Amino acid sequence: MIRPRQNVNEDRWHAAIERLVGGEAILLGLWGDAPNVHMALHEGADIAVLTYACKDGKYPSVAARHPPAIRLERAIRDLFGLEAVGAPDTRPWLDLGFWDVRHPLGQQAPAEKPAPYAFLPAEGEGLHQIPVGPVHAGIIEPGHFRFTANGEHVVRLEQRLGYVHKGIESLMAGASLDAAAKLAARTSGDSTVAYSYAFAQAAEAALQLVPPPRAVHLRALMAELERLANHFGDIGAICNDASFALMHAQTGILRERTLRAAQACFGHRLMMDVIVPGGVARDIAPEGVASVRALLTEVRKSFPRLIELYDNTASLQDRTATTGIVKAEYVRQFGAGGYVGRASGRDFDARRNFAYAPYDELKFEVPVLTAGDVNARVWIRIREAEQSLSLIEQILERLPQGPIGANMKIKGVAGEGLGIAEAFRGDVLIWLRLDNEGRIARCHLRDASWFQWPLLETAIEGNIVADFPLCNKSFNCSYSGHDL
Amino acid sequence: MRRTLFESLTRGPLTEAAPLPGEVALAELAQSVERAARAKLGRSLSIRQVDAGSCNGCELEIHALNNAFYDLERFGLRFVASPRHADVLMVTGPVTKNMREALLRTYNATPDPKWVIAVGACAADGGVFAGSYAVVGGVKDVVPVDLHIRGCPPSPTELLKGLLGLLENA
Angle at CA A93, nearest 5°, toward B121 and A49? Predict the structure, then answer.
């Protein structure tokens, strides 16, 4: 259940923070909407959104008591100029000092020359620093990693992100629903279906629309194809970072076959812009069902052998088992979603916990492990890929006939809505408010990576520098989805 | 593992025939690539990919070039880890203001002769992100571009067409 948004006073804001600290609530998001700040919480089976009206551009810091909010507050400060009173870290986060304006979404001011960025100190004998990025050695997104190491062992990793910040939320303001949906679909390309899914849910909630059953099922079909493709890609890429190229080659074939099935069904390999507010933009092609069935047959034949290969290769297990352990208490505190959370014992999946259509009618299990290492994150992906195969079969079995889009007549009433969808890496949350013309007044997109990136810093501690690519790949956080 | 390897040997390759070079891409190349470069490079090109702000969609399809179906290396094209080893910079994304300097430095670290390929709709002119306070624009607004491969994202086949054009004319 998504509860209606509530305006709260300082006491109730603090009470919510205490529930976060006590673990009764999980922080789902914290974002600016000048002059207000909104906080989304997951409490019991519900999602609650609380609004605090800033006084003189100030609000009581959540991060002061609850560290998962640190980067969110730094981002709010950069984008809106709203200050979190008592914040433990006031360094900039997304504003790296290259923009012409400060606080582009709030009270704009001309940019000032930034002070040099102060990385957190690590002191001790024989420590050295290794700066990596933003341009990395591979076909990956840009970001900066500052390692402090003692010989081979990492003592501290500090991330500095924001390099691919494109100002998506500012481009959304004033945009039509169509234009905004295109931006949402390009927030993190690997999760384009999940973003379009969550955006459509949010827009439909704001417009009080219900998409037709056929559209809902096609959405889930796309979401599961996207999950399959990404999990195949990740399993291979993680093994490749342990120099086991055979697995990479084999899962690369499965990934390619999945994308080709997606192309046959929906005319786009990544299925971009197919999910739209109200339904889906196009129906599955007549030959699509057969191509998906062929894919399932192929995967059912070859994937078990690859799982066996992973399980029986001791040299590979030697690299992945006990490497990059994420503590259970951290994933609980940060509300880390996806395989990062589930590999460390956090039994959460937005498809099940919030049971959005059509997952409320489908049967699937949410695999959970407790080891928290790279190996566990591989196994979660393997088990989830198997669940996706079953989900796709169920969807094909029951795919209802009927229209694929709702009547999108904008009612001329300002509304707001929240959507949440389980992307392959975790839950994507989108909140938006429409103006009277049905345009976007404010839209916030929160990638699962916000609550996973900080845990990567903890996972690498005490590991060797050479295992960082392995740990990083096992997280596969989104830079673009985080930087916005 | 032996069974998987053995089947890979006996099954026959998945690799598909190379597509014809894209005509539009070829026309664009003819103007920007000098004849003299052919002798210097032979039929081998090293590519350094730079994400200057992309949504990571283009990266997924560039990755796919290395899979068994497209097998980029059979054309003498390969991805390298450092701009200092590269002949070609393959740049994706609208160039964000936060990445402009990093892109420039990468370009300056690449030895001459060099080519720049802008991949994707955003790399051409900023795409859906054009006009943002955080975006410079297309790749050509920061470094000289020799070839545009369009698409959102371009499919591996489209990427291959563009790259083959570069190889056959370089």
Answer: 90
What pLDDT sits at residue B76?
79
Q: Whole-prediction pTM value? A: 0.94
In order of A12, A60, A216, A241, the CA distances from A15 in angstroms are: 5, 12, 37, 45
Size of interface A-B (CB pairs under 8 A): 146
Of residues A134, A252, A256, nearest to B99 (C-beta):
A134
Q: Do B69 and A192 touch (CB under 8 A)?
A: no
For residue A258, what are the contacts with CB-CB under 8 A and spacing of at least 6?
A225, A228, A229, A232, A295, A299
Burial class from Cβ neighbours inside 10 Å (0-12, 13-18, 19+) for residue B130 reads middle
- Predicted pLDDT at B35: 43
Whether A101 and B133 lie within 8 Å, measured CB to CB = yes
Q: Which of residues 32-71 of A touch B (CB under 8 A)?
A: none
Minimal Cβ distance to B68: which of A141, A168, A249 = A249
Place of tokens 């078990």: A304
- Distance from C-alpha of B12 to C-alpha of A445, rounded to nearest angstrom: 46
Percent of chain A with pLDDT over 90: 91
CB contact (8 A) between residue B55 and residue A138: no
Chain B CB contacts of A164 below 8 Å: 51, 53-54, 93, 96, 98-99
B26: pLDDT strictly greater than 80: no
The model's pLDDT over A104-151, given as tens digits with 9 standing for 90+, comes to: 999 999 998 888 999 998 888 899 999 998 998 889 999 999 999 999
**Cβ-contact A422, A349 below 8 angstroms:** yes
Give the mean pLDDT of A189-203: 97
Taking an 8 Å cut-off on Cβ atoms, the answer to whether A98 and B100 are in contact is yes
Residue A476 has a pLDDT of 96
Residues paired with residue A110 on neighbouring β-strands, in sequence order: A101
Looking at the DSSP bridge assignments, the partners of residue A39 are A30, A50
